[in-house]
Amino acid sequence: MKRLFERHEAEVAGLLPRGRKTIASGSKYEKSDVVRLGAWGLLVECKSTQSAGFRVTRSLWKLARDRAYNRSVDLRPALAIRFYGPTKTIETTKVIHDLVIIDLEDFTELIHEIDALRAVKNGTELARTIEQNDLETQQE
Questions:
Q1: Per-residue pLDDT tens over the stretch 22-38
Q2: Which of 44, 90, 123, 131 gives the lowest tally of CB atoms within 10 Å of its CB?
């Protein structure tokens, strides 16, 4: 029978395009739970709780960051945090909140890439407008 943390890892891997659970996550040699290779590669540490809160510390983030960067320069660290409701069965326990923490620089880059892709998709000049706004903001 799966445990709640295993359900979380499997669902995160399933939601990420090209995501997969790492083999023996948490073992001596493989410390993170989910990896997504390719453009915007991620090494995700999954944490789940039924408590009212979960504490993210500098040391937890440093550990996730170091594991990602030591494995590959193409991976970005991420924390996936899930809050579960009271246990019924593993499959039916309600997910209250699903959160992802990434570095602010990675988040900013992601937003810029999304804007650029939308501009191409929509055939607009959105990308140029955003760049112009960014330049104006930097000059202020």
A1: 876 555 455 678 999 88
A2: 123
